[in-house]
Amino acid sequence: MAVVSNTSSTVMNNVEAVRATLYEAMRNDDRTVILGEDVGARGNVFLITKDFIKEFGPERVIDTPIAEASIVGIAVGMAMEGLRPIAEIQFADFIYPSFNQIVGEAAKTRYRSNGEYTCPLVIRAPYGGGVRGALSHSVSVEALFYHVPGLKIVAPSFPADVKGLLNAAIDDPDPVLFLEHKKTYRLIKGEVPDGHYTIPLGKANVLKEGTQLTAVSYGLYVHWALEAAAQLQESGLSVEVIDLRSIRPMDKTTILRSVEKTRKLLIIHEDNKFGGVGAEISAMVAEEALFHLDAPIRRLAGPDVPPMGYALPLEEEFMSSPAEMAQAMRELVEF
Amino acid sequence: MRVVGLVAVQHRDPSASSFGRHGLSDQQLLAIFRTMLMHRTLENRGFQLNRQGKIPFASAGEGHEAVQAGAAMAFARGKDILVPYYRDLGLDLGIGLTPYEVLLSLFARAADHSAGRQFPHHYASRRLGVQTISSVIAAQLPHAVGAAYALHYRGERGRAVLTTFGDGATSEGEWHESVNFAAVHRLPIIFLCENNEWAISTPLAKQMGQPDVYKRAEGYGLPGVVVDGMDAIACYAAVKEALERARSGGGPTLVEAKCYRFLAHTTDDDDRTYRSREEVEARRKDDPVPRFERLLLDESILTEEGMEALKRSIREEVDEATDRAEVMAYAPAEDLYRDVYADGWQPWRGEE
Fold first, then answer.
1. Burial A228-251 (b: 16+ CB within 10 A, else e)
2. What is the ipTM of this complex?
């Protein structure tokens, strides 16, 4: 439901899409400030905000002390007093010190003040593995936060979605945790419509239609699930692939419609399996569509160990490959 | 005020005859005392209502009346922003919160600022300039810094943020992070520590190796001021000077007001389990309310009859507020679901 004001487009990778969207947000609204570690002179460790400080100045592109709790907490205070802060956690792995500020403060601002104060805040955090990031530059944090009322969580996979969803997150009157998979940053390229548009939070995207199995995923694994589904297509198996895009709110309608059609559900995510996003989707489908199912729901997810060892074999063991996804899809289709 | 390097030390003159008004008119002095008395009376009412089984909980700030009423007098209503903590009823009253609003909060009624969602004394009001807070210690300090950054960023000279906390809060990482950030950017903010020596049951000596919080200021690169927190005028003067510096672009200040918590932490606490009655009784000689009362009488700002009339009017006002609030309705149960998000309560989105 993107509102595209212009039919032309530009090919970008995900990092360029984040950068272009942040740039426009800074250009369009002087209430917007960016704060985080190394976002200014260094231009962010992935160069997402490179040269922003030259154009917008150090008062809008704030190199903060290394203090994640207050990066978020200061942004909460800014948001309550009329700014539109975009806080950056350099790597999602560093978000833990700010847990209370996100869960206990930002997410409850509207509720506890009876709507008198609000917290229009975006927290960006690069997450995910497959980049040899070891134990502190690889984690997925969505399951730690998607339990929390008052918070919204977005995890786009494609550059065009990065732009539309980041714009929507910036416009949103409530706090949004915007998760960017690091492995997709430069790996994934795509057409990004020019001009301003938004994609509503909470709308999944059916990337590939199919009839025999629904595969639901988000982030990097969406791309690998598509690859796996394409492999299966060659042997005549028809898999529908859904990119959730938003984790909270989550698009129940798209999931249920698909499952009612294909009658089988595979949920694929990189985050640990126990208590992961797949658990909630499984429970929802079991509650609402059990009698449409022809096979048990299956989850292909990260093992329940700390993500993820530095050595290549450890990282590979943690991650699911397109081949493993294809195998899981085949088994479930043939169940 | 004696200035030592970055650290200015406020010394209270023990002689009542050299009473310094710091520019306060009789009317302002009476307003400060009224706030102190109202603060104490309302908190006693909270304890009474709890013991009568009418409300589940109340907290206590007895011993904090002077610092809060003094600081409130320095606060510019309609301009400054207050980011308080949960033991700041006197500050809230001093900047315009009414006894009726306090009773609505104690009774958790629908007309309360949080519609009965929050614990008592967690007021959020744009009208008063009070930001919403949780009960998590020091979690409000980064918000105060963010608000101060917003004022600084928009170039709003003439406005400042006053944020408050107890001695226990100074142990939190967010305390350090907030003071540090404010110092880096020279933000218009006052960090006011109401050091009452007790964090529930944990005494100052277990909270910090250096019992003078204000001395930390030098380490962060901002002025630090210590003041007798039982002296409302001294507290007013210290906070006023700091606020004026902040409003005029002079940056942040750490103010430590040394006071004492005379009562248990809350209605759910029993302080006899961790401190002696002798300690508490010995500190009663510093009680700021009789001390200020004596000053007003000695300086003939108020007569004995006037004092009695003032106390009577406060009791009547609190009684009237209690009666009014008690009969007000709770929010309907559906209210549980409001205000989670601007666009409704739903972890799932889609057509139902």
1. bbebbeeeebebbbbbbbbbbbbb
2. 0.95
